Amino acid sequence: MGVVRGIRRREAQGRCPDILIAERDLAGEARAFEAVAAAIEAFTPRIELTQPGTCVFPTVGPSRYFGGDASLAEQILEAVDTVLAGQTECHIGIADGVFAARLAARMRRGGPCIIAPGGSTEFLAPLPITTLEQPELTNVLWRLGLRTLGDFAALDPSDVLGRFAREGLQAHHRASGTDDRLADVTDPPPDMAVSLSLEPPVERIDQAAFAARQLALELDAKLQRRGAACSRVTIEAESEHGERFIRGWRHEGALSVAAMTDRVRWQLDGWLNASPNVRPSGGLSLLVLRPENLIPAAGRQLGFWGGETEADQRAGRAVARLEALVGADNVQVAEWRGGREPDDMIRLLPAGTVELSDRQLSIFDERPWPGQLPAPSPVELFAEHAIQVVDADGTAVTVSGRGKISAPPAQVCLDGRTWRTVVSWAGPWLLDERWWDQERFRRRARFQLVDDEGNALLAYIQKGHWWLAGTY
Asked: What is the Cα–Cα distance from 50 to 46, expressed in whole angstroms?
């Protein structure tokens, strides 16, 4: 069995030892996908991007013009394959709703998958309930004995609404093949649009992203005054020479300020870095955001113990001010990733890419990591800092392949000159991972040392050499 969507990283490495794992670059994906979106626009003017790499559009009008759904899909596939030039594959699905169409495109290999009108319910029925990709909801449905989308779709919608509220009802519509929000084909309300003139025109992405965040904040405030939120936003950019670029972005839920800012950044990055015949000949002079698919705002409940508090909102506003001063990519927040080494457990993400008020800021996780060091974690980490550790006779301390230490550590030298007495130590904690990867293979024994000056050190021995990993 190969690597499939949704499996853990370690399981993927076990199935395919040569796999290359990289952090997802949404901005890069958006730039690459812009050429695909431009090719699809030749067939229909109102496409909606859900995320970089995926777009949806209604086929009722275009299919009549191009000779039916099958002919339309084949022509789009041919045009996109020309743009991709063999770099990857294009998958097309046509169904009554967006959810069913996306699954149809994901499942079919080698050509478009077209579900006949009215056949989406039958197509979705045998699929597992986890296909909804809503773990909290699907865990409850599984315990209730609902194993497939068909089992869930058979429930009465009023019962689903009463038990699972609006989120459950939306999932029920998707499981039934009747999405409650299809691609919008009507013009947006003009009074809700917000615009910002850029004087002088800007040519850098970071400057445009800062302007986009201010515009998104203005739009969010305008929507909140009406007690509304939007699940779709049309972004319009205009250059100083009158060139215009318009894209619609769609979201399954309500678009937050951070989500709208990201989509403006992705769109402008794709436009400004496109081929010479597409990108603007001058700087950006105008940005416009038009909200569509307005839905009631769910609001937020501040809590006394846990949940969001007023302090969380103040912190979010402080982060926004910092981004305005030093740039969006220079303000970062910590996210728990997990791992066996201290430098593996946490990664830093730009604050603008996450919704701070909607995320759990605690970086601790209760999931076990075999081979993980005991708490507490070091407060300072070192990449490569060679040290020396010897026993009472002055002989370098070694560790056998079975984890047996040659002698207790007696002295440690951090700078090559000064020796310090080891008054306490713990270990070794053995680490042996990625044995199938010669380049990333790690086999080491880790120790905690305390010297006579009260310094607590995290050190390890690897291939006969001692290294300082961190200090407490």
From this structure: 13
Using one digit for the tens of pLDDT, what is the confidence trace for 96-117?
888 888 888 887 666 788 888 8
Give the residues across from 54 on adjacent strands.
51
Question: Please, which pLDDT band fits residue 183 given cuts at 50, 70 and 90?
Answer: very low
Q: Give dist(CA 250, CA 295) in Å, integer.
A: 13
Burial pattern 424-461, b for ≥16 Cβ within 10 A else e, equals: ebebbbebebeeeeeeeeeebbbbbbbbeeeeebbbbb
Strands 93-94 vs 113-114: parallel, antiparallel or unpaired: parallel
pLDDT of residue 389: 92
What is residue 383's predicted lDDT score, i.e. its pLDDT? 77
Task: Report which residue type is found at 50.
Answer: T
CA distance 60 to 58: 6
Backbone angles phi, psi at 66, to 5 degrees: -100, 15
pLDDT digits over 30-79, tens only?
888 888 888 888 888 778 888 888 888 888 888 888 888 889 988 988 88
- Looking at residue 412, its pLDDT comes to 92
The answer, yes or no, to whether residue 243 has pLDDT greater than 50, is yes
Alpha-carbon distance 93 to 99, whole Å? 10
In 226-376, which residue ranges form alpha helices assigned H by DSSP? 257-272, 310-326, 342-345
Average pLDDT of the chain to the nearest whole number: 80
Neighbour-count burial for 171-187, b at 16+ CB within 10 Å, e otherwise: bbbbbbbbbebebbeee
Does residue 208 contact residue 280 with C-beta atoms inside 8 Å? no
Spatial neighbors of 263 by CB under 8 A, at least 6 apart, are: 49, 233, 235, 249, 255
Domains for the chain: give ranges and CATH numbers.
91-176 (1.10.150.20), 190-296 (3.30.1490.100), 317-372 (no CATH), 380-471 (no CATH)
Residue (of 173, 172, 191, 193) closest to 181 by Cα position: 173
289 Cα distance to chain centroid: 23
Q: Which 8-state DSSP code applies to residue 191?
A: G
From 167-181, 358-372, 394-408, 444-458, the region with the lowest mean pLDDT: 358-372
Say what the pLDDT of residue 361 is.
Answer: 42
Residues linked to residue 293 through DSSP beta bridges, in sequence order: none
Average pLDDT of the segment spanning 138-147? 89
Integer-rounded Cα radius of gyration of the chain: 28
Q: Is the bond leading into 428 cis (omega within 30 degrees of zero)? A: yes
Amino acid at 10: R
